[in-house]
């Protein structure tokens, strides 16, 4: 839902005060290295072509620098932690389900949970505010179209609409390959994901030097109690069992599958439910920023499958167990927000049976690996579903790639 500019400004002033107060007792380390990094970051962003920010955008960006909450409850994180990142938009009925499921995950208190928001939505914020089971940090995409009511990357008065011809309508914008002009609420999906990836890997104090795996989940993913322990096993086995695997997955790439139930590991195409990879893989992905940003499809995952992964030159396999540890349960798409006229109505009720086998690690270190080859799905040569033809979106996407100075060294995949 795109708010009026006055309401955006009013919300922005209130937001900074309330969230800053909540986190004020958790102070950052304030060391010289961090201060130098922040100075370098300001210089780097000065050379990146980013849209002019409004008050709310600026205030949300400042909130991203606040330390995690619950440091008093969980002062020490495990050294071998797998950081968890939750990518959300505005489906509170779903977010309640995933947060409840995360609260039951064994080991979640050993790590940091980062919640990446596409804009600011009070109902979503209240749910995250109630988390007490781990350290939690909220970040807000400051260039989300949902924050800009009268200018790019939101809707501006001069924007072409639908199938307008720019030369005839004297409007601004480039159509996609099917002749359609941009829809801000649609392009926000891909913008948010790419901004989140760049920010988590290269921008945040808490993660920019993290070399290990980071797990990415979404607001309509039910996470089983054994997910974190299973993922630890998979990432430890990956170098030996599947050295060419780029990632580990909690769930099969076929979202309708619950797994084979075999006594073996599975190597297959990377799925989009509960995927984890390390900095080495991130650097390979980041090096393909132009391919990602210029592919005419508003879906981040289809863009990865159809253009980024094929550009690596070899099959991109992910390692998983033969029994799922995460389930996609949503019926409403991310672009079907609660404030839209054609909003998808779903009360978020789920009926997922958690069996005893889902409560404990169920992956054995002596299992062999079964490899699925030539699986169906999006591949190189697919043209894309469109929705991503506007040069402004493509260049904003590229700007996200250059916001931060990457640090750290490479490690095996």
UniProtKB/TrEMBL annotation:
Membrane topology: Single-pass type II membrane protein
Disulfide bonds listed in the record: 160-171, 242-245, 293-397
Catalytic activities: an N(4)-{beta-D-GlcNAc-(1->2)-alpha-D-Man-(1->3)-[alpha-D-Man-(1->6)]-beta-D-Man-(1->4)-beta-D-GlcNAc-(1->4)-beta-D-GlcNAc}-L-asparaginyl-[protein] + UDP-N-acetyl-alpha-D-glucosamine = N(4)-{beta-D-GlcNAc-(1->2)-alpha-D-Man-(1->3)-[beta-D-GlcNAc-(1->2)-alpha-D-Man-(1->6)]-beta-D-Man-(1->4)-beta-D-GlcNAc-(1->4)-beta-D-GlcNAc}-L-asparaginyl-[protein] + UDP + H(+)
Pathway(s) this gene product operates in, as recorded in its UniProt entry: Protein modification; protein glycosylation
EC number, as in UniProt: 2.4.1.143
Subcellular location: Golgi apparatus membrane
Keyword Acetylation in annotation: no
Uppermost EC category: transferase
Key words, A-Z: Disulfide bond, Glycoprotein, Glycosyltransferase, Golgi apparatus, Manganese, Membrane, Metal-binding, Signal-anchor, Transferase, Transmembrane, Transmembrane helix
Major localization class: Golgi
Protein name from the UniProt record: Alpha-1,6-mannosyl-glycoprotein 2-beta-N-acetylglucosaminyltransferase
Origin species: Arachis hypogaea
